[in-house]
Fold this protein.
Amino acid sequence: MDNLDYGIIGNCRSAALISKNGSLEWCCLPEFDSSSVFAKILDEEKGGSFEILVDDSYTIDQKYKENTCILVTRFSDGENTFEVHDFMPRYYNEGGGYYTPPEIVRCFKHISGNPKFRVVYNPKLVYALGETESYIKPDFIASLTHAKKFDTVFLYTSFDKEKVLKGEEIALKEAGYFLLSYNEKIIKPDTKKINLLLQRTKVYWLNWTDKVPTYKKFNDQIIRSALTLKLLSYDKSGAVLAAATTSLPETIGEVRNWDYRFCWIRDASMVIKVVSELGHKNVAKRYLQFIIDLIPNKDEKLQIMYGINKEKILTEETLDHLSGYKGSKPVRIGNAAYAQRQNDIYGILMDVIYTQLDKFNTDIENKEELWTITKGIVWIVDNHWEEPDKGIWEFRTEDRHFTFSKILCWVALDRAIKVAKIFGKTHKIDKWGSLEKRIREDIYANAWSEEKQSFTQSYGSQDLDASVLLMESYGFIEAKNPKFVSTVKAIEKELSNEGLLYRYKNKDDFGLPSSSFTICTFWFINSLFKIGEEEKAMAQFEKLLSYGNHLGLFSEDIDFKTKRLLGNFPQAYSHLALIECAINFSKKDSETKLKESFDNKE
């Protein structure tokens, strides 16, 4: 495959990627950040996969069962047809909580004729660091490794286990299944139980999407993106992952390959804000608890990112035995960026705290803890906002006074003042107001370039950066302010490449970026829309949507020339920005229709 033509399934404990041909090529068990069971996506020979093979007479189509995360792959040669319904079980327990076992179910449905297929079942446990051996037992196929550490998985199936392991042809005459479990089952599954799992999981997802408002435009894309964001949330702790994968490169053959199976405060907070706007406040409540749990001491600084189980040390190492996606080495696990200072995270976190209090004030517990965090954030910003940092794009060398970081320091004060008003803590407002004013004036004095007629990437620089487009959506500047309009036009002129945006064009630690960062293009489209260029924004949005894969999923990056998806996948950042754009277009459409209706009545 030349593109990231994968679907994602998951249950908010872990996830798996399945190719458009039905090949399971990435999965970590028992949790998102565990070592891989299948990693063909990172090494076609060594990585391991779980494939369904048919002869060349079959065509293969794939789609999600509507409004769910159940992936349906259909194999048909016209006369002989079957479907595979892939999912990870998730449903509500009658006793409370959710049933989310570390399991993948592959449910085979006979549609017509006498279809035949073969299976390649080739797990490679612990990142394929050594041999994984599989053995046929009375109830299951056990696969185990002693390489690096001991690990096992168990495959239950209605099909002939010997034919499965040997890759021999299997004739499908009735419904069948595979259930891959990290744990040995106490009660052996059967076709009836598997179907019950499927139906319960389907009902869970249908109920979840039913809470999402219906939008006049782009409703299907909003729902698919919302479901994808939900799949990247981790129930156990409330963390939200940046993506489900590691080391998918920003550019083929280069070294910008990072592990994204962690919770970045910035990414997660942006996701939470969007998902709660879609009516899912429980995800937000769990995330706020995740933050509260991470800040036990009033003087403890926030890291930019944490492990999904609240780990603070995320040591980075390379897996040199893996060749990488399309030969792009190194493959990394862990992420050294956890130690960086990025001053923007405080504003982003304050924004999500304020949004939740504003929307769900009567429903939020832990208000005292949130007020303590608010005061702590203001204290940290007051003491550190004038210092340089690594910025939103995590430059690994020098620190700079990045404009985006300064804007978000302003956001921290602006939202803290609003939170103080909600809690009636008026004694803080004047003191915090003077700091808010100082930061705002500092940005106007140092981030504006008369030469470029734009706010720039960092103080004293002439380089442009797509992240400054967010100054309007965070309320720092009005959309119709001439300086913002001019900034949008300058960024379009300098950073746009056939409608796709560079994050920036100045060289970073690894040279000039050669792919577009998807979220930046969504930010730009949103900015065009806000400054009144609505038709142009809509045309660019529809064009950008066409670059998604066959299921409407997006990764982190898009190649400027080929338009192929690159970078970790699916990317929370990309999908949250897609939702924001789509909602803006839909709201505008509703307002226009309301106005037309009103005018007609006149």
